[in-house]
Prior knowledge:
about 270 residues; 12 helices
Amino acid sequence: MCYGILPKSFSYRILMPNIFLFSAGSIFLYMISWFLLAQLKKDNSIVDVAWGLGFVLLAILTFALYSARLQGQYILLFMISIWGIRLASHIHLRAIGKEEDWRYQNMRKRWGDKYLLKSFLYVFMLQGFLLYLVAVPIILVNASTTPTEIGVLEILGAAIWLFGFLWESISDYQLYKFKKNGANKGKLMTTGLWAYSRHPNYFGEIVLWWGIFLFSLPYTSWYFSLISPILITWLLTRVSGVPLLERKYKGNEAYEAYKKKTGALIPKF
């Protein structure tokens, strides 16, 4: 059987039979490209834009070159594309006209003369590795050649993804509009979805990846996909998401008051 968009007389799997190796190589080259661009711009925070677009690129490549054009593969491609493009666009618009994000500025100060090497390894390569692990459900779904009809698990997974996607998108938009208003400078966003949790965008992100995991359950070797939502949940609740911002606002009286009446992640109505 031949796969992808190449001529029927050519099987792409002859050149790159392992979709996981192909995905790893693609992400590696992709992140190197963004690293070089970041050095030209002197702004490592563009790696945050690269995050969402990396999933889109991987979804398109593995779909085009490996998939059997199953219904579920089309749906997953749509889900990943709309999420990744929306997230990258939001981060890009938010950064227009601003300096490098404070997190990466702090890294420059801490790393000193070793900044270039550490940026390559700990910012771009590490992010690429995490992207690869989170993308496991995408790779597994697009690797499938067994015809399957859309069932309850895919429908449930897509519904959960949609809820998470909308929750994240709406909360991001509300915060963007709030910060665009000069009258709100120095104030905290505590209305809209932000009235129900202090990090509704992270909550939506976690939920949508659990939806993608459920979507992948009917496919072969689905259990490997479990690493994706677990890793996202751990990163956003224990590493770079909630803890980082909580430390930033530690000691802020207004934030401490907001913290007492509002949950960190799961909405409290």
